Amino acid sequence: MSTTLEPDGTRDGVSAYRFDNRLGGPVLSHQERWDELAGTHSGFRSTVARGYWVVTDGPEVQKALQDWRTFSNKSVTALEPDPKFLWIPEMLDPPVHNVWRRLLGRYFSPSAVAAREPEIRQVAAEMIDALRGRDGADVLDEFARRFPTLIFMRLMGLPEEDLPTFLDWTHELLHLSHGEDPDGARQMTAMREVSAYFEEQIAQRRETPRDDLLSHAMAWTIDGEPISDRDMHAFCILMFQAGFDTVPISIGWALYHFAAHPEQRAEILADPSLIPTGVEEILRVYSFVVPARKATKDVEIGGCPVRAGEMVMLPLAVTNRDPGRYDHPLEVDLHRKATNHIAFGSGPHRCLGSHLARLELNVAVEEWHRRIPDYRIAPGQELWQHGNMYGIKSLRLEW
Ligand code: HEM
Questions:
Q1: Mean pLDDT, consecutive 10-residue segments, the chain of 399 residues?
Q2: How far, in Å, from the CA of 285 to the mean position of ligand 1?
Q3: Which end of the chain, N or C, is surrounded by fewer C-beta atoms within 10 Å?
Q4: Is the Iron keyword given for this protein (predicted)?
Q5: Measured between alpha carbons, how far is 298 from 155 in angstroms, rounded to an integer?
Q6: Domain containing 358: what range?
């Protein structure tokens, strides 16, 4: 993929490219492009739109994520330094960010998540049972997307009959290629619908509170003030974005990985206690989240002379696939001892849902292999991953 990277001169002595992370590509191409860029640069300038800096040095990426004073979350979208929208808690900086994290923490703690395990396992098992009598399926559409979305809707207290609508919105918002939605109109329509949906859910709970996360959150106070409808809405939108696509993408990678590596599949079938390490390794090797931050002051990072107000892209793949950090970094190693990856981020914004995500992933891999141990990638399909967050677009397996 690096051959498609078009040089565009230099900026302040640093190499510049027409680098656009929104474009899709063949499976693993984005991760491999990061490997190449990290091998030759510690940082560079993208000249797409208003331009932004990209750090490709593994330790520097992690350092920036931890240094919230210098790298603010006021914008987390490299192409939009001055967003008109707010996502809570992702776009808040400490100290108000800490208050939200404290309030949310108990719903996402290891013990709160563990208490939901039987329910989560049952949902996964039922969905896989419905597939096992067939001889194949697009596992993204028929399992990887449905399972975590349903769990998430239950957690938030959203009506389960809305599941198909949510799956449609996720598709329209996150999965359309440029050709399918050239002017972004379909994406805008879906965003407006999601926004109106949450407005209505909030209004319903103001009238009649229920026993769910949304109703509980509406009763919280921050600095003695009740949470406004605007902030509740910003919270719902972030949860939608953060919780809806990430676990499906990871389940997609896990099934792809074990289909493409039957020898490792045989190992986890013989010894399921290897699954947790396998899941961590898949999160690390297939790293798909690319955070961004807005500099609060002039600073040099990855050799880039960043000015206050400029955006910096911080791809997690360069840390997670860094040969300076891991032996044979590009391999999923079911026996790796330390998997101190940063697939869930690092610093104050480290993923709030990581315990839930881990549980869902482990359950998905365990229950799948208990029921459908023998499967293969159906021939004749082009395996493609989305840009932005690198999820496999569709994956037909046969069994
Ligand atoms: C494998 C699945 C997941 C991955 C890889 C993942 C990854 C991440 C990453 C890298 C961040 C930090 C972003 C940044 O630094 O800008 C993050 C933040 C966040 N994630 Fe996840 N996530 C996953 C699943 C989930 C789930 C299931 C939920 C909720 C149900 C969730 C909720 C959040 C929230 C609320 C934040 C913002 C935290 C804050 O700003 O303090 N995530 N996630």
A1: 75 95 94 97 96 98 98 96 93 96 95 97 98 97 95 91 92 81 88 92 93 91 90 91 90 98 98 98 98 98 98 98 97 93 98 97 98 98 93 96
A2: 17
A3: N
A4: yes
A5: 42
A6: 2-398
Would you say the CB of residue 89 lies under 6 angstroms from ligand 1?
Answer: yes
Number of domains in the chain: 1
CATH (domain of 62): 1.10.630.10
Q: Residue 343: CB within 6 Å of ligand 1?
A: yes
Atom 6 (ligand 1): residue with closest C-alpha? Answer: 344
C-alpha 392 to ligand 1 mean position (Å): 19
Ligand 1: does its nearest atom lie under 6 Å from the Cβ of 359? no
Separation of alpha carbons 129 and 134, rounded Å: 10
